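Memo to structure team: turn this sequence into structure tokens by end of day. - J.P.
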Amino acid sequence: MELENQYSGWVGRRPIQIVSGKGALVYDAEGKEYIDCIGGNGVAITGHSHPKIVQAIKNQAEKLIVCPTILYNEVRGQLYKRLAEVTPPGLTKSFLGNSGAEAVEAALKLARRHTGKIEIIAMKNGFHGRTMGALSVTWNPKYRKPFQPLIPGISHVPFGNVEAVTNAITKQTAAVIVEPIQGEAGVIIPSNTYLKELREICNAHDVLLIFDEVQTGWGRTGKLFAGHGHWDVIPDIMTLSKAIAGGIPMGAMIAKNEIFDSLKTGEHFSTFGGNPLSCAAALASIDVIQNEKLVEKSAENGAYLLEQLRSHLKGKKTIREIRGKGLFIAIEMKFKVVPILKRAISEGVLLLTSGLNTIRMLPPLVISRKQIDQVVNVLEKIIE
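Reply from structure team:
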């Protein structure tokens, strides 16, 4: 901890040092066990150090780690094909990078290049990353204000308000970008008609629809991808990251053929994007998600976790709302939740926040019912 404090900064760290993990559990330097409902900020969907992903990384590391995309590579080609197979119909060509923010940057560039227009409509309380383009479509003023002016042509409208989107569209609107379920805002779930209506509006005005599934993708919400799985809506462009490679850094932007091909050779590139090591990890991660039925487990155990939270915390006047889909859960309180998070650490549970007054839970999809019960009991004890 001393080294990180001395030689780095910026990040608000919890006072524990994690040294190992297995499944839904992590362990600190003293050997104390924690149920991990942070999950690497939503990355550890397959659990920590899943043996099949570890083995795939070992095998690939011994064979080839680096191969830039100016050279062909079989593992990368297999991943491109696999992404086209598992993502919503029509999304067939991918760009591979290293993070969700990088995927969003690629999506914004592609939207401008394909349409020849510059304006992007994003959502209030939406989050898409902290690089300059991704930050420009992110809403929270505390992230944006210190770095203004950001890229021009960005407007923000209320999430869930279709009329506001219609009113914001101009002849220069290239795309609308939206999280199917808002994550950092506190797991905000739209109405059942919202995304369909967005799709219709974009079609009517020749505007591209971008789904940011960085946090909602890969089974987090009980469907492989939230927008298509819950509401049967297909975007023109989709951004992916977090759980895509089992914990190895990777981001992906996938789009329809005719849109993807608008970018020409040399107009976008990533040195590390699509390296064989991360591609092997991603292929193994997708196998684990499918073979171990983690999407189904997310739906079932997410419903169980919601039921247990609502049952055990029923009548607590300090709670505004408990909401979620799959293992994407939020508990909105009437006060700041940092004291709850600190107390939970001492009780062996790691939790996230959304803003000042909401607890967010992003556990690995391999979490067991017994571990869920422990988390609920800890929360009940602390909130009581």
